[in-house]
């Protein structure tokens, strides 16, 4: 039996193997948890089939970019529901990281010889792949509900989904380092997910919010999730929204840096808490 | 077992020197030094709260040591984590397998964390499961295993990337007497078979053989570092249990049994 581990395991191919392995586990776990897959789909579909249908008559949507004509409320709300899928998936990832930390599974990941930042980014990417699966199944069902995007939109939305998934995943990753116990996760639902979702342009256009409450309008504009939704909305029609892209990229960088710092063995919160993992 | 002046740190699977660690105001480890030569079985014996898990957390770089040094095959865990951790296998006190995945999937996932390609990983996983006598259960979910079987899988996983240093933190926790004996015998066998240096942390004196190398840890301090006979002589008794209790009680300032 060889004692020394061959060094090429830790070359470029080794990094690729590690990345693929972490992403593969995320997808495998998701596919094994059928209830999670079902609830991830049912949630936005309920909003699309019931909420949007009901609000169609109440909420008028004027012609605003990227739309070139009046659109049904279901069409307007679709990018918001795609964002919702990614938001909930990211929080699910955060929840599973807290769970992994409590059960000790996280230590297996952190024990890998690869740099910790790389491991966390790989974990993040695995979560994004899972969210893409959910989004495309949702868009397929929405297609049969007559929410038809331009064919090119199904492709151009992919990079936007990747970037938004990374941003929401980075926020979730940071939160997982701050949340001490699984029980505290209810607070995350109340104070992070719901405010992020409702104080955004996911369900109503920003001009409507400005008419109703200028302060709320400013809050919505400052919400990174608003920019994620707008990036997705424009990308669905083959267009780029530069401000949204800049905000989403900046937030991704900021939260990812914070998360990597938090998981840093010498500086992060684990070290300060003396957590055994 | 005490690190002598002559052999360099790379001669040891694990070499800890002058390790002190605090959590806030609490002193968890106080100037701890110990060494595990390659192909040796060393018992880290200590009551609950002695600092065994803190030592493991630092050796596995869950967080960094501030003072002192931890070397695995001569590589400093803090300064050269990649070189150090690739030679390290660990079995944690709490279960750390993914119960939703099969035994083989768990092992392949672990292999990927060490850069082992999938095809090679399947081969390694089959061999590792055969070593622990669970080859026929490769496709079963982890949740279907008994406590003893899950421990065996964790040991198989820890050996998958062929480490030179193996750390086991209370590896027999929650196991019945037969499973405990079986796991312990298996690990002792690996030491002879594969020349792996093993640090076996436990609070159970009956897991220690009289001839074993023993590091006795209490409240973050090393009370004894040597072989069983020396411990018995120091405590002036013929029983390891009595010796353990006597030294711990002395350290507490209590009456010796």
Could you characterize what this model shows?
The complex is a heterodimer of chains A (277) and B (257). The model of chain A is unreliable at 1-5 (pLDDT under 50). Chain A has one domain (9-265). Chain A has 12 helices and no strands. Chain A has 277 residues and is an all-alpha fold. Chain B folds into 2 domains: 1-87 and 165-257, Rossmann fold (3-Layer(aba) Sandwich); 98-162, no CATH class. Chain B contains 8 helices and 10 strands. Chain B has a 6-stranded mixed beta sheet with strand order 6-7-8-3-9-10, with helices on both faces. In chain B, strands 2-1-4-5 form a 4-stranded antiparallel beta sheet. The longest helix of chain B has 18 residues, at 177-194. The radius of gyration of chain B is 18 Å and the shape is globular. The interface between A and B is large, with 44 and 48 residues.
Q: Write down how many β-strands of chain B occur, each being a DSSP E stretch of 2 or more residues.
A: 10
Following the backbone from N to C, one meets helices and strands of chain A in this order, namely: HHHHHHHHHHHH
First and last CA, distance of chain B:
28 Å
Average pLDDT of chain B, to the nearest integer? Answer: 87
Structural class of chain A: mainly alpha
Number of domains of chain B: 2
CATH architecture type of the largest domain in chain B:
3-Layer(aba) Sandwich
Shape of chain A: globular
The largest sheet of chain A, given as strand count, sense and whether it forms a barrel, is:
none
- Measured by DSSP, the beta-strand proportion of chain A falls in under 5%
SSE ordering of chain B: EEEHEEHEHHHEHEEEHH
Poorly predicted segments of chain B? none
CATH class of the largest domain in chain B: Alpha Beta
State the separation between the terminal residues of chain A, measured CA to CA: 32 Å
> Within the CATH hierarchy, at the fold level, what is the topology of the largest domain in chain B?
Rossmann fold
Number of helices of chain B: 8
In angstroms, what is the radius of gyration of chain A?
20 Å
